[in-house]
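#lab-general

N.A. 3:47 PM
ok so I finally got the sequence cleaned up, no stray characters, all 180 residues accounted for. can someone with queue access submit it? mine expired

B.Y. 3:52 PM
send it over

N.A. 3:53 PM
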Amino acid sequence: MSSFEPIEFSPGDFKRFTDRIKQSGYVDISKECVWLTSSSKPPHNAYNLIDNDLNSYWQSDAEQPHMVTISFPSSVVLSHICIFFDYSQDTNYTPEVMTIRSALGPYLLADLTQLVVSEPHGWYVIDLKGHTELDGASGVRMRYLQMLITENHQGGKDSHLRQIRLFTRHHRGHAQDGGL
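B.Y. 4:20 PM
back already:
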């Protein structure tokens, strides 16, 4: 398992960060993926993870571990994984320990990094650009990404995740301006 230290951003700072990386040729591909969760409690489904509303959330509805599995239409080199947490609203529903896994095939998931957060409020950005693929690409090549929640704050059972954003360099699925 690699060690990718997350960077914490307030919502305003995250907006400036994403504006800056988009100007550098990175694009948000979050809405181009297929999202699958291990469970969900209606109406808090997986779509809430990408709806651009910090007040909405996905909520699990089963025993831990909880999983969010993302499949990309084709192999991508992911540069940034961004997750929004709000402990002040979610308390014991807030994940404390998450394992991030990736793979090129659906049954070959390998641990990429572990994210441990303490009473988080804001965006946590895992910058994968420190990894270099054999072809020289900066980031981690994958077709599947999985977030495995193994512990919540205060021993909570179900989890809330509010938003997730996934970034890569410009690729064939995007218009020149990086729009979705």
